[in-house]
Specification:
The protein is built from 16 helices and no strands. It is mainly alpha-helical and 381 residues long.
């Protein structure tokens, strides 16, 4: 996603985006090798450069500049979208409340899944950054602000995209068709086609793809820091850890950069994998007991008993039930999509491929964990 966004930003600012057949170009670009790999490499270098300079001089400095820039770009795009003739149809569609859907289980499952993936809860990203938190930081309020900030960005992005689709589509049915084209089709085919129809469309196309690139890079540096921090904890220097992780990420990500089918498969497998990862965190908290888990950071107050009761309900009841239902739902959906080949490990959205890749990664993780623990014990002795 980082590489694709960067490529389309370059197309926008160079003016080329107005002179191409967007469907044919997207298919040609994703089927090629050189350019996707090049932009993938550039994205990894940008993310690695930020992480190499550490949390304060790297991540914190980046966030102070780029996160306000991201919100500014999104707000500019949203204001432009809302001022387009016909945008009110999209605005009403975006905020329309249909109370009957509150009883639709799929709506809730889709919403929970999107929230889990969007905030990176299953990655443990907040857990990684919490290492650098001060002792007097309020963990609950920081987590709350993180979720609110993420959802606010999503709402503003929705205001920039959906009213634009309805305002610039030839009719309402074509607008619905555009929204059903999937994330890739909407972002890299439909949106560019629509932007060039408006006054200053090239400029706003650049704004959109720059914002998309910044958002993608923000996620990328979190993922790199997660892996780098683990290696630092095992005794590697930040310099060596960043180098190893970035080189590994580049080569592991190459197949997805070259093949859209592999990308879709990895997005599917590890999107579901975030729920599995979140389940491991839940299991870890249950194993050490919730009281022990929160005693480290929960400040003494008269509400301690209430907080502890809430955490017990969350970790012993709500989170395990949520994991089972959400994972079961998505795997069941996959079987329905591929009733004759759901077991096939080579199928893009097959359950067999999901389970096989999970088993392989878990085995690799166990082997490396054993070796790292052995190294630590050896160094201590």
């Amino acid at each position: 996603m980082c590489g694709w966004s960067l490529k389309y930003f370059v197309l926008s600012i160079s003016g080329q985006i107005t002179n191409i057949d967007h469907t044919a170009y997207w298919q040609s670009y994703t089927a090629s090798i050189y350019q996707p790999v090049l932009y993938h490499l550039v994205s990894i270098i940008v993310g690695g450069y930020i992480i190499y300079h550490g949390v304060i001089k790297g991540v914190e400095k980046y966030c102070k500049i780029m996160i306000p820039a991201l919100f500014t770009l999104l707000i500019i795009a949203a204001i432009k979208a809302l001022t387009l003739t016909g945008s009110e149809i999209g605005r009403n569609y975006f905020f329309e409340l249909d109370l009957s859907t509150l009883f639709n289980a799929k709506i809730w499952l889709d919403g929970l899944s999107q929230s889990a993936w969007s905030t990176g809860a299953g990655w443990g990203l907040i857990l990684t950054y919490s290492i650098y938190a001060r002792k007097d930081d309020n963990i609950i309020s920081n987590s709350f602000i993180t979720g609110i900030g993420n959802n606010m960005a999503s709402i503003i992005a929705g205001l920039a995209i959906i009213p634009t689709v309805f305002a610039l589509s030839s009719n309402i049915p074509s607008a619905y068709e555009a929204l059903d084209s999937g994330n890739q089709g909407l972002a890299f085919i439909i949106i560019p086609q629509l932007f060039i129809k408006m006054n200053g469309g090239t400029v706003f196309s650049g704004v959109f793809f720059l914002a998309l690139f910044i958002a993608a890079i923000s996620s990328l540096i979190s993922m790199i820091e997660l892996a780098v921090r683990i290696m630092i904890d095992f005794g590697f220097s930040r310099k060596n850890a960043t180098l190893i992780i970035c080189i590994s990420a580049f080569f592991i990500g190459m197949p997805s950069a070259i093949s859209i089918d592999i990308f879709n498969n990895q997005d599917w497998v590890w999107g579901l994998g975030l729920m599995l990862s979140g389940a491991f965190f839940t299991f870890a908290v249950i194993k050490i007991k919730t009281d022990t888990f929160i005693d480290d950071w929960l400040k003494p107050s008269r509400y301690v008993i209430i907080y502890k009761a809430i955490f017990k309900i969350l970790f012993y009841i709500c989170l395990p039930i949520e994991f089972v239902i959400m994972l079961g739902w998505w795997l069941w959906q996959s079987i329905q999509w591929n009733p004759s080949s759901w077991w096939n490990p080579l199928s893009i959205y097959g359950v067999g491929g999901v389970l096989l890749q999970w088993i392989i990664i878990l085995l690799i993780g166990l082997i490396f964990n054993h070796k790292f623990v052995f190294m630590i014990k050896k160094n201590r002795n």
